[in-house]
Amino acid sequence: MLLFVLFSALTLPGQSRLTQTYSQGSGSPDTSFFYSADDLYTMAGLYGEQGRAAYLKARWTFDLAFPIVYTFFFITAISWLLSQILKPGSKWRLLNLFPLAAFLLDLLENTVTSLVMAFYPLHNLPGELLAPLFTLLKWAAVSCSMLILAFAVVAFMRQKSRMKIA
After folding, report:
1. Number of folded domains in the chain?
2. Burial category of 17 from C-beta neighbours within 10 Å (exposed 0-12, middle 13-18, buried 19 and up)
3. What is the mean pLDDT of residues 154-166?
4. Is the pLDDT of residue 20 over 90?
5. Continuous segment of H or E residues that includes residue 91
């Protein structure tokens, strides 16, 4: 959790500022929930050559590290909480693996958006078709991971409060 908080506090703001600078305020595909292929190419154009190069570098440095950090955080936190509230052997304990979906979708998103940025202004059909889908699915998986964690925290707290009463 400490690594997640530190990474989020120390690295994310700088990356956000760089993205805003290069994107001229248009944002980044990986921080959007919904966008179209046209939106992606508009972003790529606004980034300019230097911005697209910075985007590619960020996708395979910072945006490779952050999914590892948040996946590790979610898996370990959910695993510990579920081990506290569920019986050994419960299939519900496998919910701790759900964050891996977000991780894999994040990598797929980085790959296809990188293809669009690398080949801009040429159109990259797989990239432009798959990037919006992978981004949406990534955010859905991240959101589900957060919900699993939240439910596990609530269940853990309820269980602890019941023990104090008894």
Report:
1. 1
2. exposed
3. 85
4. no
5. none
| CA separation for the pair 1, 58 (Å, rounded) | 23
Whole-structure pTM value: 0.89
Phi, psi of 49, deg, nearest 5 = -60, -45
pLDDT at 165: 67
Give ∠ CA 120-125-131 in degrees, rounded to 5.
85
Q: Are 16 and 77 in contact (CB under 8 A)?
A: no
CA separation for the pair 46, 120 (Å, rounded):
11
Q: What's the alpha-carbon Rg for the chain, to the nearest Å?
A: 19
Domain interval for residue 86: 2-165
Encoded amino acid at 38, one letter = D
Q: What is the pLDDT of residue 28?
A: 86
Q: What is the reported pLDDT for 86?
A: 96
